Amino acid sequence: MNDILDGLGHAAVFGAVGIALLLLGVGLVDLLTPGKLGHQIWQERNRNAALVLSSALLGIGGIVFTAILYTYEEFGKGLASTALFGLLGLVLMAVAFWVVDLLTPGKLGAILVDPEPHPAVWVTAACNISVAAIVSASIA
Questions:
Q1: Which of 37, 40, 42, 100 could bridge across to 46 with cysteines, CB 3.0–4.6 Å?
Q2: pLDDT, tens digit (0-9, with 9 covering 90-100), for 73-102
Q3: Distance (Å, whole) CA 133 – CA 140
Q4: Distance spanning both ends of the chain, measured CA to CA
């Protein structure tokens, strides 16, 4: 029974770290795009903003999943590894966003909150998922 309770406790702590990383991801996407992201998605129903945010959340979720799956035997070390790989993923997604913005015409942030669908949104989403896959692969 103690094993089950320990497992539940560990899952709750890993879950809290995962949620914190997801919230940081929302904040990061909000920082990279003009205006308020929540307003863009929930009031304006902006599909571009929703796709970029969704890809970032899926990417971070994938990194956290992989970090937990291949975690260290020692709980504290596994928790630190999960948090650090998640933070690395967020930083690398921001860098990838900046590089795409630098190498393409226009301001990427403005394009992502434009109400008209734009192919750059799909490129940005693919970048988020690709960066997350690279970070995830480096864990295993």
A1: 40
A2: 899 999 999 999 999 999 999 999 999 999
A3: 11
A4: 30
Instruction: List Cβ neighbours of 43 (8 Å cut-off, separation of 6 or more).
Output: none
**Cβ neighbour number for residue 42 with a 10 Å cutoff:** 12
Q: What is the 3-state secondary structure (H, E, C) of the chain?
A: CHHHHHHHHHHHHHHHHHHHHHHHHHHHHHHHCCCCHHHHHHHCCCHHHHHHHHHHHHHHHHHHHHHHHCCCCCHHHHHHHHHHHHHHHHHHHHHHHHHHHHHCCCCHHHHHCCCCCCHHHHHHHHHHHHHHHHHHHHHC
Q: What phi and psi, each to the nearest 5 degrees, are found at residue 44?
A: -80, -15
**Mean pLDDT calculated for residue range 5-21:** 94
- Whether residue 58 contacts residue 88, with contact meaning beta carbons closer than 8 Å, is answered with no
